[in-house]
Design brief:
two-stranded antiparallel sheet, single chain, mainly alpha, 234 residues, 2% strand, 59% helix
């Protein structure tokens, strides 16, 4: 994504530091610097996926454990409600107005997505509206903080979030973006469609052809990615 600094640019500087490990141990916010789980994860990413251990050690020196995320995910699951209870939440004048504006602004892109993927434009618009109010609420947590917190400090679903953390680091490398710059929900969902990293790597598309996939601030890529997802899911 052209709006974000690339992973390679940032870490090329860090790799030039003579005392990477020493700096990591001194970092104030380094909640995971001395974690055996993180050390094991770094070794796995280095051995199996070709990451440089120095880069990952430097990254985790800046990752923060977020208690608010653990509190949020530990709340009792909401009981399933009938549609009549959800309707006033999602069918509001403001959401309808924003949806109409979004459709008008991206009419050609929506038509192209419908033609290429066979997914109705109204479905794409509705999904983006429900997920993030058309980009109005894409999440305020750094994705790497969210996924690390849940991977290493939430045992009930640690394997799932460890996998998503791995996918996130891989997409950051593939897209040449700084993982510390990407934000999302407390569970690590990202962008206008709130894709988890594994969904991003499987379904997200560069729909505007600029060489990058940006579902955070580029509605064109977000529209194409939602259509791609639904095509693959029948």
């Amino acid at each position: 994504m052209h709006i974000l600094r690339g992973w390679a640019v940032r870490h090329a500087h860090w790799l030039g530091l003579a005392s990477v490990f020493g700096l990591a141990q001194q970092a104030v916010a380094a909640d995971y610097t001395n974690s055996p789980q993180v050390a094991e994860f770094v070794a796995e990413m280095t051995r199996d996926y070709g990451f440089a251990s120095e880069q990952l050690v430097s990254l985790f020196a800046e990752v923060e454990r977020k208690q608010a995320i653990l509190d949020a995910i530990s709340r009792p699951a909401e009981k399933v409600k009938p549609w009549k209870d959800y309707r006033p939440i999602f069918i509001t004048d403001s959401r309808i107005a924003r949806g109409v504006d979004f459709w008008r602004e991206h009419e050609q892109t929506l038509a192209r997505a419908e033609q290429e993927y066979g997914v109705p434009a109204e479905v794409i618009v509705a999904i983006i509206g429900v997920e993030t109010f058309y980009g109005g609420n894409t999440g305020s947590y750094r994705v790497v903080d969210a996924l690390s917190t849940l991977a290493f400090d939430y045992p009930p679903r640690a394997p799932f979030f460890r996998k998503e953390l791995r996918e996130f680091l891989m997409l950051s490398r593939e897209e040449q973006v700084d993982p510390l710059n990407l934000k999302g929900s407390y569970a690590g969902a990202m962008g206008l469609p709130q894709f988890m990293p594994s969904s991003f790597r499987a379904y997200a598309v560069d729909f505007d052809g600029d060489g990058h996939i940006n579902i955070w601030t580029n509605p064109v890529d977000a529209i194409g990615s939602v259509a791609s997802y639904f095509k693959r899911h029948g």
